[in-house]
Specification:
The structure holds 2 protein chains of 2 kinds.
Chain A lengths: L51 H7 L5 H19 L2 H27 L7 H17 L4 E3 L7 E6 L21 H13 L2 E9 L8 E10 L11
Antiparallel strand pairs in A: 1-2, 2-4, 3-4
Chain B lengths: L31 E7 L5 E6 L9 H21 L24 E3 L4 E6 L5 E6 L7 H16 L13 H11 L4
Antiparallel strand pairs in B: 1-2, 1-5, 3-4, 4-5
The chains are: A alpha+beta, B alpha+beta.
InterPro entries (chain B): Longin-like_dom_sf (IPR011012), TRAPPC (IPR007233)
Subunit structure (chain B): Part of the multisubunit transport protein particle (TRAPP) complex.
Protein name (chain B): Trafficking protein particle complex subunit
Chain lengths: 229, 178
């Protein structure tokens, strides 16, 4: 579950600047008392995906600092609970995966995206619509390999890392591992098995955030029942 | 469509494409008959009926046959697509979203409306045969599913849906279908 306690932010939490506009989409809301989605009369035709900006404007948003600090609190709590940095990386990835498997349905329901013709279009959709809808930023897709199965998402602006510095004891920490987990989980739900790794990380002195996504397998639909049951 | 009511009928959800006028006696909450929701693994996440006088099969048999019908129908509709250049055999596994699909079929007594999301959620809604295009309605039901099922932290993905709030909003919504 993706819940956090604000109180676990330590006063030592490295706060360096407050510069971000206070609008961000967050994935943790589960307020079941909300009214149902608006009636469908205003929907554009079924086949036209929304633009990133329209999509971002149409979803609920939360305060960016609250989001950033909540994520920071989660990572910090994991570091306290699990002690090993490697374990924290794994846990973040798993949390991201669990988020991704649910988040994909919300993305599909709200973005009007239907089917992507190939992995390139999928990657583009994630970069331009997915990141925009949930994080308020867009990513760039680059570094395609010859087969078109591996590419990089480059994030110049990453809302998860505001106010963050890695202390010497946590140099192995993949602070944003939740993002790679989300992508892996979401793509798995649309039958694409992927491996996602971080290759550049500004927290370690690189000039951008870069995630390498490798499509390992596309799973065809199988008839799920056996003949005899 | 204000055919069977005055302007005070605000609870009727406005359809984006005008639906054909529902026959007398329907459009007042008795249009939707049965809904099935399946996931990719053939698990029936939801079965709900509002109007189904006759039952001839055990429930799980019924659900399995429904899933099988749709699975075969989809692979067949994709196969007979005259614009397709693929030469795979009938029944060759399709990738999700590969090939075309169908939206509904109609008999003289009911209409089956079908939607599949790229994530493998299949929505099947049986309605009166003279109801209009239900694609928008199915999309709306999908967004209800997202709002009240997927975002419910107590719901384990892939398990049957037991969310009262979802059922409540679904019941409310299908009453407005015309």
């Amino acid at each position: 579950a993706f819940t956090a306690k604000q109180k676990s932010i330590s006063p030592n939490w490295p706060i360096t600047h407050y510069s971000r506009p206070a609008t961000l989409r967050v994935v943790l809301s589960s307020d079941l008392s909300r009214p149902p989605p608006a009636p469908i009369s205003a929907m554009p035709p079924l086949t036209t995906p929304k633009s990133g900006d329209a999509l971002f404007a149409s979803v609920e948003r939360v305060n960016a600092e609250l989001f950033t600090l909540t994520y920071g609190a989660i990572v910090r709590q994991l570091l306290t609970d699990l002690e090993e940095v490697e374990e924290v990386n794994k846990q973040l990835d798993q949390m991201g995966y669990n988020i991704g498997t649910r988040l994909v349905d919300e993305f599909l329901a709200k973005s009007n995206v239907s089917n992507c013709a190939d992995f390139k279009e999928t990657a583009d959709t994630i970069a331009k619509l997915g990141f925009k809808m949930f994080l308020g930023v867009t990513a760039t897709v680059t570094n395609w390999d010859a087969e078109g199965t591996t590419c990089s998402f480059v994030l110049e602006d990453n809302p998860l890392v505001d106010f963050v510095e890695l202390p010497d004891t946590c140099q192995g920490l993949q602070y944003c591992n939740v993002l790679s987990g989300v992508i892996r989980g979401a793509l798995e739900m649309v039958s694409m098995k992927t491996e996602v790794t971080w290759v550049r990380d500004m927290l370690r002195g690189d000039d951008a955030y870069e995630m390498r996504v490798k499509l390992t397998k596309q799973v065809p639909e199988e008839y799920p029942y056996k003949d005899d049951d | 469509m204000q055919f069977f009511g005055g302007s005070s009928l605000t609870s009727v959800a406005p359809e984006s494409s005008p639906a054909p006028a529902a026959p007398p006696g329907t459009g007042t909450g008795s249009n939707a008959q049965v809904i099935y929701v399946f996931n990719r693994n053939g698990v029936c996440l939801l079965y709900r009926e509002w109007h189904r006088p006759l039952r001839t099969l055990a429930r799980n048999q019924d659900q399995k046959l429904m899933f099988g019908l749709l699975f075969s129908l989809r692979s067949f509709t994709a196969k007979i697509d005259p614009t397709s250049t693929e030469h795979a055999n009938l029944g060759a596994p399709l990738l999700p979203g590969q090939g075309c699909s169908f939206h509904s079929f109609k008999t003289n007594t009911y209409k089956l409306n079908y939607m599949e999301s790229p994530s493998g959620i299949k929505l099947i809604l049986l309605t009166h045969p003279r109801t209009g295009d239900q694609r928008d309605a199915l999309k709306h039901i999908y967004s209800l599913y997202v709002e009240y099922v997927v975002k419910n932290p107590l719901y384990a993905p892939g398990s049957p849906i037991k969310c009262d709030l979802f059922n409540k909003h679904l019941d409310q919504y299908v009453k407005t279908l015309i």
